[in-house]
Target: Amidase
Amino acid sequence: MERNFQSAEELIAALRAGEVTSAELTDEAISAIEREDKAINAICVPDFDRARAAARAADAARARGEDRPLLGVPVTVKECYNVTGLRTTWGMPQHKDFMPDEDAVQVSRLKDAGAVLLGKTNVPIGLQGLQSSNPVYGTTNNPWDLDRTPGGSSGGSSAALASGFGALSIGSDIGGSLRTPAHFCGVYGHKPSLGLVANRGMVAPDTPALPVDLDLAVVGPMARTARDLSLLLDVMAGPDPLTYGVAHQLALPPARHERLGDFRVLILDEHPFLPTGSAVRAGVQRVADALADSGARVERHSALLPDLAEAATLYTQLLFSGSVARFPVEALEQLQVRAAGLSPDDQSLDASRLRGMVLSHRDWMAVHHRRELHRHGWRQFFDEFDAVVCPVTPTPAFPHDHNPELLECRIDIDGVEYPFFDQLVWAGVATMPGLPATAMPTGLSPEGLPVGVQVVGPMFEDRTPLRLAELLEEKLGGFQAPK
Model:
């Protein structure tokens, strides 16, 4: 495999052995971007001059005997992270000239680990949606099929990784924004446990970079191998030094098992709110077969599993309650009128989205209490199981759809159309209770598109789904470069 597609772990070994320099790796990555990114449009804010300077500094540091976790490794970051000297716009034209005055905490951690920042990757406007297109930077295409989306909102990062533009990237996830792009582009992404990774500086350009605790949303690593996810998570994880970091130190427990055959796994490929397409079901089955062949305990049903329909409803209400926080009063009043007109019998996801948009604080607290009951249910579930394997979305990457009215968009599942946002129910399996989830490729669809699954693990036991993904990677083959 050519060096641009090697893992970070392989590049670090080559750098330590003196087989290559960071300057060479950086020049090769920049050459690949300049040669191929016109068609992909993954790198929306290049930073090549400073990258070359950082690579030379990394080589000089290594010559002095220094060795940091990512010393000299070329990486990218999602556009929404503040980087001193680079624009942060979130794809919004009104902020096209915004320049932050300090790095996001995760950008600082990358730099402290010795990584070489090639630039920033594209996002949807305001990070809203499962595609990556905006009026500032244009549309990012899927390297496997330019007529399809790489996903969103970390779609630029997944497209960059699949194209060999850097060995690692960092993104964010609230509605599958790490996991969906990984699934669509055939790479790896890890949604950490809620609160495990500090998010300060991954913030909209009109918002102060404060050390706040986010509800549902996390930041996390993306890579071309499961082991690289673990490598990058070790750099990223830990409390913000301005808050919990004053008193807390991180001590993630080890993975529950080291052998594939020792894992106890529940397999899910059906959801009560919408069907799963045949290509994704086949990907889930490949994982189930690999587990069974290795002697793992594989189940398809469990009375301990928290109710998926209620979980999807809670997730939808929590997600959309945050989405309207800055709506004008007049728009909110219109939503309240529409929500009041809903029938109590209407328990559809469309109704849940509308109800979520107008939750009072009292109502939100009631939904949050039900979430805590689900979290307790998951704790009981993980006494008997180590992980859940399920879809990320019901289909592989779909064709570009630039309709700005996302609530009007549709997703085609084996020839039948469903509301676009309904596919978020699979992301919500892990997001609503705050569980860690590792997205990993399982092979290709009959159309030749990547198909992935997510491995969901116990709260703050992130090393368990990561280790299971690593073992499955050995069994199934892992990343493939786009043909």
Notes: The two ends are 13 Å apart (CA to CA). The mean pLDDT is 96.
